[in-house]
Amino acid sequence: MDKLYTLTNSDDLAGFLGSMSLLDDGMPADSAVWSDWLEAIEKASQDPDIRLKIMSNWRDNLEQEE
């Protein structure tokens, strides 16, 4: 997560994952969170340019820091 934050300068994923309390069976207590997670995985897996977008955001953030 530290690497993702460094690349994107966003803690959205950390906040989302932190909201996923797991039950003893390993499933989230909130079924809506589970469906949101599955939808996010599906969208990311269909985007062949996702790594390029992450790197572009990272580069833009570095340029803004300078």
Radius of gyration: 15 Å
Q: In terms of quaternary structure, what is this? A: single chain
Elements, N to C (H/E):
HHHH
Number of strands: 0
How much of the polypeptide forms β-strand, as a percent range? under 5%
User: Pairing-aware structural class of the strands and helices?
Assistant: mainly alpha
> Treating each run of at least 4 consecutive H or I residues as one helix, how many helices?
4
Overview of this structure, please?
The chain has 66 residues and is mostly helical. It has a domain at 1-7 and 30-66. The chain contains 4 helices and no strands. The chain starts with a helix and ends with a helix. The model has no long low-confidence stretch (mean pLDDT 78).
Can I get a quick summary?
This protein is mostly helical and 66 residues long. The protein contains 4 helices and no strands.
How are the SSEs ordered, and which strands pair?
Blueprint: H1 2-8, H2 12-18, H3 31-45, H4 50-65
Question: Can you give keywords for this protein?
Answer:
single chain, 66 residues, mainly alpha, 4 helices, 68% helix
